[in-house]
Amino acid sequence: MENRKSQIVKLALRNIREKGYLSFSYDDLSRELGVTKASIHYHFEKKEDLGIAVCTKIKEGLEATFIKVDMEQIGLEDKLWEFISRRAKQIEMNEVCPISSLQADFHYLPLKMQESVQQLSQLEISYVKKFLDELKSEGKLRPTNDTKALASLLIASVKGALQYKRVLGEDLFSTVFDQLKILITGNIEIRKT
Q1: CA 136 – CA 144 distance, rounded (Å)
Q2: Predicted confidence band at 187 (pLDDT cuts at 50, 70, 90)?
Q3: Is 29 in contact with 11 (CB distance < 8 Å)?
């Protein structure tokens, strides 16, 4: 039973990445899974319940990536870029970051989902901020007083580059990623992601 529930969440997440939360229905999911709509309603009474489950899955992915990268025996600067790179690599060419997709639909989401999306957004910023704070304390970050604003700028730039990648190709994303490394840390030694 948990397997079916996981399949539904995974499929909903894919739909959110490809076309947004508002653009798919339980009918779509039931056709893609080859089950009845009632089967989906059995696990998730309302689409909002499914949306919250998707947000939980995204949160678990963010946390797992952060913990893995933070524990790795690599330099502080590498941890920042590795975290961002791993998250970006999960987005296929025809997809949008699921957090960005949910943010785009934010004003049309049920209140509990809005709260979940806000928490996800804050969590993502806090992880990048943590890496930036560590770099700042080691003197490896260009001067800044506001690492939270810098984290937000970095995330917005990466997500914008992911959007442009859909239209202009992978090379654009790699170029933007490399330029961000130079702008944020002043490091001109570029490592291909």
Answers
A1: 8
A2: low
A3: yes
